[in-house]
Fold this protein.
Amino acid sequence: NQYISEKTKQFDTKRYKKMSKSTILLVLFACLCLSEALKINLCQQRTAATIESVAVSGCTEFPCILKKDSNPAIEMSFKMKRRVNDLKLKIAGRINGREIPFSVDDTNHCKTSVEGITNRCSLSKNTSYNYKFSLPILKEYPSLMVVVKYELVDLKGRSVACFTFPAKIEE
């Protein structure tokens, strides 16, 4: 009787360890799939920074669904190729082949969107930065498919970082 009990314990322990390993692997795989950054399209022009990653809150596949009257966060990490003293935001939507600018309040954009910038905006060469901005999707926007062009420019209008992604604006 004791022999059978010991064998059962060994069997249960082995099965438990095997199940635990399988469960851990499954959880890790699921986390990797969910945390995978979107593969955005870089703009063709030269930029002052190299984009390392981009995430749009609530978007795990294209087209990104942008709900009206919401503020999805655009998060980006980038590494500067040259020094830049300030940033402005330019957003446009390509609809039926035409680029239509979106109006966005970007007062103090660098200070409010780049992590670690508190006073004067000065982005140093060979330094990586984290960026986050909540993009207002207004009720007035029409419901449609659009290719969003998201661009940060310096004070002279030269591109610092630029990418595009397909989106669908809806209720």
In short: The two ends are 68 Å apart (CA to CA). The chain has two helices and nine strands.
